[in-house]
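Continued from yesterday's entry.
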Amino acid sequence: MTNWIFTLILVLAGIITYHKKSLDLLGSIFMIFMGIIILLKAGISWLILILVFLILSLYASKYAKDYKQKLGIYEKKRTAKNVISNGLIAFMMAAFGGIAFNGHYIPLFGGFIGAVATATADTLASEVGVLQKPRLLTTFKTVEPGTDGSVSILGTSVGTIGAGIIGFSSFILGLVPNPILAVEIAVISGTFGCFMDSVLGAILERKGLINNEHVNLLGTLSGAIVGIILIS
């Protein structure tokens, strides 16, 4: 019965995000599909952590909307590509739960937390960090807000706080029994993944070798790997 309730919540969330034009139709469908699989394979706690990320990211995207529109960097509606690139790694961590390697069982909930923390940190850093002039990570020269591979103190700080929220939420939800360890895993993996995102943006995306979706996917993967290492 509980699974049906949360499935209904997922469907309603998909309808709301589509109605509010935060996601396009395909993006909303993918969000619902991935959420249902996470619910069935991993459980309610894992799903709720994803919903925490969703709420934070939707709020951040609407933050300072008028200013972002003036800069021409306001992303009104996200697509299925955004959902997949930010959520695929976390989805895979939840779907598999754990893997056997060299005779040992490796749980993947640390990777799940790392991936979600990275997606949260990156989204908040990008959406809120535009309020401050950033610097290109490779040269440290001041660039325009929204430049690929740029970072700012404001963005990094907000992103770290976002990762910390994911960590504390993972403790509240019972994914990690120790609150300090939970926040540590999320902040370290989320911050690392976020900076990896910026490095890839500065070195590869600016040269047109990869696009934003590739950067998000590789960033969340790196955060997941760090999360797995920290929990092992």
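--- second protein ---
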Amino acid sequence: MYAIIATGGKQYKVSEGDVLKVEKLDAQPGDTVTFDQVVAISDNELKVAGDVANANVTASVVAQGKGRKVIVYKYKRKTGYHKKNGHRQAYTQVKIEKINA
């Protein structure tokens, strides 16, 4: 059984027991979060839209962290302009506990 959930502007295909990194959530490690935006659920057949209106996915927060550094380098030739900047995206690592259909 799997579900497709939407969080942080992205969609993820999840099953029970999966550990994944999602956009930063306001929760501490050990907390339980519920994803209410379920796009589709499949056990033997795929259910979408109206069939999953009251479905949700329960997950526990494993860790909060930052991803690898991405270097942003801007450069314009012949003008002496260059600018170097780095960015580390914050994420929340969650473990999928239960899919409530």
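Strands lie at 2-7, 10-15, 19-23, 32-35, 38-42, 46-48, 56-66, 70-76, 81-87, 90-100. The first strand starts at residue 2 and ends at 7. Will compare against the first tomorrow.
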